[in-house]
Amino acid sequence: MKQGTFATKVIMMILLIGVVAYVGVYIIRSVSTPYQTELAYAFQVEEVSTASGYLARTETALPSASGLVEVSPREGERVSKNQTIATIYTNEAAFNQQQTIKSLEEQLAQLKEIASSAEESLDKARLDREIASGIIQLRQLAASQSFSQLDTISSAFKSLVF
Among 34, 85, 91, 115, which residue is least crowded by beta carbons within 10 Å? Predict the structure, then answer.
């Protein structure tokens, strides 16, 4: 291969230094420039206009809260159409009863989860026992040199393992 001349090497070095300098200046400017912030003020704007005609509204006014109010969404959480925003309880007994129902439903969900995991562990234990008995059967057949049932037992053993 032909090596480059001295002039091409110098030009390549100048280009490399230029690119490195450009990238360095860009990084320094982007790091040293802080975020630009603006001061925001909260205010309310009202617009009033006079008109004559009929007004049709589809909203329904909520009755005044005369009991305990439980707000469903968390602070800042978005709500969708027809989602419950708050529940009003007429007295403290109704509120306590609802809290009891919620805690019992949570306990029921936990118990169902425990039961399903127990069933899975029982299934795993049963599968382990079946695999162990399959190994014993295969070993006994191989020791007695009785190969007539070996095909069916080995295929059943493979299905247990897989």
Answer: 34
If you average pLDDT over every residue of the chain, what do you get? 80
* pLDDT score of 121: 67
Number of domains in the chain: 1
Contact 76/59 with Cβ under 8 angstroms? Answer: no
- Indicate whether this model's pTM tops 0.90: no
Can you tell me whether residue 68 is helix, strand or coil? strand
**b (16+ CB within 10 A) / e for 65-78:** eeeeeeeeeeeeee
In this structure, are residues 153 and 133 in contact, taking their beta carbons and an 8 Å threshold?
Answer: no
Q: Which residue segment(s) compose the domain that 121 sits in? A: 68-74+82-161
User: Distance (Å, rounded) from C-alpha 112 to C-alpha 100?
Assistant: 18
* Tokens (6 digits) for 99: 């809290």
Q: How far apart are CA 62 and CA 16, in angstroms?
A: 72
Q: Is there a contact between 137 and 152 (Cβ–Cβ < 8 Å)?
A: no
Is residue 111 included in any domain, yes or no?
yes
